[in-house]
Amino acid sequence: MTTPVIATNALTKRYGAHAALDDVTLDIPAGRITGLVGPNGAGKSTLLALAAGLIRPTSGTIEVLGNRPAAGAAQLARVGFVAQDTPVYAQLTVADHLRLGEKLNPGWDAQVAEARIRQTGLDPAKKAGRLSGGQRAQLALTLAAAKRPELLVFDEPVAALDPLARRSFLQSLMEFVADMEVSVVLSSHLIADVERVCDHLVILAESRVQVAGEIDDLAAAHRRVVGPRGSLDRLPGGVEVIAADHTPRQSTLVVHDPAGRLDLPGAEPIGLEDLVLTYLHRAEGPSAPILQETAR
């Protein structure tokens, strides 16, 4: 069995009385582009900071590539991390960043870095502080990828970019993944971007995992069902109602049917955006059970 790139068990991170993450048990598989989605304050940045070794858990455990996060130089070299706002050094030139990356990373691939700089049209002599947001994002991606890591972690890397720069960044990301066969965890609240580049999904809300699994499997296992009021009161065993809306004449349900047994005239597929929003709305209620799909 392949070791998950991130594995947590009862992971909790508290800041005083506030739980940024609460009892999170999760396996993120290798070889995927995993989208980590949820509203602001859901715990996405906290989970990724824990994975990068920037902070420590209050309780529970987290392993990255089978080891403790930031356990040493060798472990640090296996993970590329780009924090929010794609931070770079404003007073250093693009070329300075590449030289710094080479000095700090024993596995640095200068050819990858230089080819990427040429491809994106970045001026090696230009200071990072004078780059556009999209150019800074491309520089940060280049620095992370040229480490030749096994795992790339991005915390909301495109949130502040305009649509054209966001598209260019995501295209570059997919090219890197194809060329380097690297696992990626990408947090975002832009569901369209997740749908475009990701094949695995984790939904975080209210500091807990709401659902996780392969996107295709999740799509296949969820249905919207519409029928006359009362006709959907009895469903096959194992079918879980995620959301329900009733009028005097009809009922509309979103159901989780992992075995694919639900075959009703009113059943239809549910899109990724509606699936995410359904779980986010449910999390606002008094109880939000955790659900994790098993990859096929």
UniProtKB/TrEMBL annotation:
Q: Per its UniProt record, what Pfam families does this chain match?
A: ABC_tran (PF00005)
Instruction: Kindly give the PROSITE patterns that the UniProt entry links to this protein.
Output: ABC_TRANSPORTER_2
Stretches assigned to the ABC transporter domain: 6-231
The entry's protein name is: ABC transporter ATP-binding protein
Keyword ATP-binding recorded: yes
Q: Which residues cross the membrane?
A: none
InterPro entries to which the protein is assigned, alphabetical? AAA+_ATPase, ABC_transporter-like_ATP-bd, ABC_Transporter_VariousFunc, P-loop_NTPase
Question: Which keywords, in A-to-Z order, does the entry hold?
Answer: ATP-binding, Nucleotide-binding, Transport
Keyword Lipid biosynthesis attached: no
An example molecular function term from Gene Ontology annotations: ATP binding
